[in-house]
Amino acid sequence: MARTVLVVGAGIGGLTAGSLLAKAGWPVTLLEASSELGGCASKFKRNHYLFPVGATLGMGLESGGIHDRVFRYLGKPLTIEPLERVMEMVHPEATFVFHKDRLRHVGEVAAHFPQHSDQIHAFYKEIFHTATIVRTLMDPLPVLPPTTVKEWAFLTTSMRPKHLKLLPFFNQTLDQRLKKHGLADLKEFRQMLDGLLIDSMQTGSENVAYLLAAVALDIYHEGAYYVPGGLYRFAELMGDSLKDNGGVLKKRRTLEKLERQGEQWIATDHRGNVYEATDVILNVPIQQLPQILAPELVAKLKFPLRDGIAGETWTTMTLYLAIDSTKLQEALPRFRQISTGDGLDAGGHFFMSSSVPGDELRAPEGFQTVTISTHSRIEDWNTQEKYESSRTVLTERMLQAIEKLIPEFRASIVHMESGAPKAWERFAGRTNGLVGGFPQTLDAALFHSISHRSGLPNLYVCGDHIFPGGGTIGAAASGIHAARSVSGKRLL
Fold first, then answer.
1. d(CA 285, CA 288)
2. What's residue 79's pLDDT?
3. Whether this model's pTM surpasses 0.70
C-alpha cells in the first residue's frame, strides 16, 4: 500500500512536518481550520493595520538555528539581521536592557547590583557554559522521551563525553542554582529572570528545570530578530514550499472525526469531506483529542499524553492596538516587557511588541501596530460576569502601566480590540483559550515530556504541548520529530 500523509493544523509544528515531508517527496495533504496559516503565530487585518496574533519575537534564525535549518532545507532561507538591542525589561526598581552581546548584557545587569556583581558574573558564566553544552544536542535533535529502540539508539549516539557535565544539573531547578550562587534572595534580580522565563518557559525561576532555563536565558544572545510583517511569514514560507513540492493545502477545513480502519486513518472534516491516509500528524491542541477520537482510541493514547489532555496551562489576554506615532515623543521600541511587581499574570507582567516605523506590511507611514499579552488563569474567566470583569480590569491595568512610561500613549490609540480566551478558542482553536504549552518544570520537561508518538499506529502529535515545548522553536522541533518518524530519515 502506498503511504500517504495527512497533517491536521497549519501551526508552526504542522507546517514544519508537512513541508519537510513534501520536500522529501511524500504525498502530503494539510488541513487548516482557519483562513490563516501559523496558528498562534498567524495574523489578522483591520482596515490598514496588520496584527500578529501572538508570537512576535523571531528566534531560531541564526546559522544552525531550528528555523534556519528548516528554511534552508526547503530552499527558502529567510535572511535578516539579528537585533543587537533585543528588548527593554521595565521593572518598578529598574529598567534592564537585554543585549545580544553577552558580556555587555551581564555587565549592565551586574551594575544594577554592585554588591552582588561577582555572584552575578559567576551565575551567568555557568548559565552560558551549560547552555553551550545543551545546544550541541540541537544539531542531532534527539527525541525525549525516547520510546523506541531507534530513538534510544539515536539519543545514545548523540551523546558526547562533555554531556556528562550536565548530569549533576539534570534534576535541579534554577532556584537551586540561584541559591548556590547566593542570589536566591536578590528579589529584583529574580523578578527580572522570572519575566524572561514566564514568556518562554511558562513558569518562573522557582520551579523551572535548570537545563532548559539555561538555554532560555542564553538563546536571545544567539539571535533574536524582528521579522518584517510578523512571524506569519514563517508559516507562509512553509505553506508555499509544501505546495511547490506537490502537497495539498486546504484552509477552512475543521477536523471533526478521525477513525482507524484497517491500515488506514479516515478523517472527516466539518463539510463532510473524507480523507484517507496511512500516516497522520495532528498539530491541534491536545485538549481536542477526545472530541476527534473515539473513546476506545483515547484510552490507547500514551499516558503522558492522556494526562496532558486533562491538565491546564495558562490562558492569555491580548490587546491589539494601532498607534498614531506622530502623537508620541518617540516611536515605540520593538519589544518591551513591563512588570509592575504584582506577579507574573493578570497584568502584573506583560509583553509588548510594536512594529517598527516604515514596516508598511503592518501599518501605514506614521503608525505602528502593537500586540500586548499577559498571562492569565482560566478560573478568572469561567463565568460571564468574571469574563467581562477580567477583560475590563486587565485592559485598564496594562494601559495604566504603559501610561506611566509614556503619558501620551492612550491619546495616540486609533484602534484597539482585545483577544480574551474565547477569541483564542474561536479563531486559533485553542480550547478554553489555553496557550503557550506546558510549564517547563522538572515533572513535565525532558524525560517527563509528552512524546510526538501518540501510542496509536502511525498517529503523531506536534505543537507546543509536545517535546520540547512552547514557542515557534519548540513547535518546529516537534514537527521535525514527527516528520522523521514518518519518513524514517533524519531529513535535516
1. 6
2. 87
3. yes
